Amino acid sequence: MAAKLSILASFAAATFVVRLFMPRIAQRFSEFEVLTAALFVAGSAFALFPFVEQVGGLMTLSFTLGLALGSGQPMVMSLLYSLAPAGRMGEAAGVRMTIVNASTFAMPLLFGAVGSTLGIAPVFWTVGAALGGAGMLARKR
Fold it and tell me: Distance between CA atoms of 49 and 44, rounded to whole angstroms?
């Protein structure tokens, strides 16, 4: 039980740490650069999870994932603000929240079905590939 909590705590610590450095990161890099890097790092971390069994390795991957996701979320909001048409930021944020909330309902069902049929590794690899593909699209931007 303590090992599971340590793995989750490393993710939470990383999201906290990266948010402390976000002002400096945002000054040095554009939103798309940070988001692209976050997508590639998160995709790589997800792809590596099935290969790691030791708590230390899982904590490292969890921390890495926390850094990526903790830096990506503020950049998404910044991009929404800068790219949304004038006076429509509320709508853009609402669409984002709708997608996020729908995915928190649908993804566990989908990945649970895939995981129970094929095993858990393909779930991690699929998420990693999707994030890597999104990183490729963001890099072209």
Answer: 9
Cα–Cα dist 125/141, whole Å: 24
Q: Are 17 and 64 in contact (CB under 8 A)?
A: no
CA distance 56 to 77: 32
pLDDT tens digits in sequence order for the chain, 141 residues long: 788 889 999 999 999 999 999 999 999 999 889 999 999 999 999 999 999 999 999 999 999 999 999 998 888 888 888 888 888 888 888 998 999 899 898 988 988 998 999 999 999 999 999 999 999 988 876
Evaluate whether 42 touches 69 at the Cβ level (below 8 Å): yes
CA distance 29 to 32: 8
Distance CA 74, CA 25 (A): 11
The answer to whether the beta carbons of residues 139 and 36 sit under 8 Å apart is yes
